Amino acid sequence: MNNDDNSKASLEQDEALLREALPVEIQGRVRSARLKEGRAIVVAEAGDLGAKAREELEKLIENALSGLTQVDEVRVALIADRRRRMIIAVGSGKGGVGKSTLTTNLAVALARMGRKVGVIDGDIYGPSQARLLATEKAKAKADGDKLIPIESPYGVKMLSMGNLVAQGKALAWRGPMAGKALNQIVDAQWGDTELLLIDLPPGTGDVQISMMADNKPDGAVLVSTPQDLALLDAARAGQLFEDGDVPIIGLVENMSGYACPDCGHISNPFGEGGVEKFASALEIPFLGRIPLTMETRLAGDAGKPPAASDKGADDENAKPFIVIAEALDRWIRNGKV
Ligand SMILES: Nc1ncnc2c1ncn2[C@@H]1O[C@H](COP(=O)(O)OP(=O)(O)OP(=O)(O)O)[C@@H](O)[C@H]1O
């Protein structure tokens, strides 16, 4: 080994020593850690943290390293090299087709598969994620200028436009204000969240336009009921993503087939297979269909997403959401559903 190799090995040894002395939950933030004549110099990522959380991070690093015999002094430099999280938008052309229900259940199913997921309720004019994720009683707090997401009981963090605006005042939030609110939520203190699902308002309005400009999603899931009119609107919503070069991950058919709770007969109030045919005509992947069931609606109102069922995919109301979440998980891993 020459001198260069020696010094490289010793730098690496120092770095490993310092990193290992830190609590596991903050190790991922460390960009570099060096030790020079008893002085530990740690550079850590804190772009997503507010003032109080930054102070705490600094203290945690100082306390952990000052206990080492090799260290006399600790210097911490916090940088704001904003960590990139994946953003997936869930959109529809029309309201009431089940976009929010799908977003919640995909988030819960992905969290149960081990992903760290956050939900953003971008539907400023009719926020529903607080009800769906049972966080209605929680108030969003802030650390300095950073909002702190709310922990739902299902392992999914969330923030809603509804947390930023007093009930009944949403209509005054037009244009740039709505877009700004969305930016503030995307920039919140999401911590180790790796994936944000945005439940968009229906259509192609202000929130969508500002999202495409400032927080362009990595992909979009479109949801539609099987009626022709809903499909045409979904196509229009899809166009917005295509125009902005956002890949459409696929199309979901919601409220397809209604199983009569008394006799089990399946009827198709909105037609059958329409969304799949439509997806194939547009060469968009078809991600799956979610039947219309009384349980799904009641579960939504009660803040108990079917995807959180203890029975997992053995629960017939959870299964369709889990199947679509698995397709999404494959897309996140290999870019293909
Ligand atoms: N598969 C389903 N089976 C039964 N009810 C459903 C299903 N999907 C959604 N619903 C119900 O339909 C209603 C509308 O759903 P949801 O709020 O998810 O739609 P949305 O497209 O987000 O609507 P909005 O545009 O108002 O935000 C809710 O009462 C919900 O519980």
From TrEMBL:
Binding site for ATP: G93, K94, G95, G96, V97, G98, K99, S100
Keyword Cell membrane tagged: no
Record has Transcription regulation as a keyword: no
A single MF term (Gene Ontology): metal ion binding
Coiled-coil residues: none
Keywords in alphabetical order: ATP-binding, Hydrolase, Iron, Iron-sulfur, Metal-binding, Nucleotide-binding
Signal sequence extent: none
Family annotation (InterPro entries): Mrp/NBP35_ATP-bd, NUBPL-like, P-loop_NTPase, YlxH/NBP35
Highest taxon in the source lineage: Bacteria
Biological processes annotated in GO: iron-sulfur cluster assembly
Quaternary structure annotation from Swiss-Prot or TrEMBL: Homodimer.
Function recorded in the entry: Binds and transfers iron-sulfur (Fe-S) clusters to target apoproteins. Can hydrolyze ATP.
Family designation: Belongs to the Mrp/NBP35 ATP-binding proteins family.
Protein name in the entry: Iron-sulfur cluster carrier protein
Native source species: Erythrobacter longus
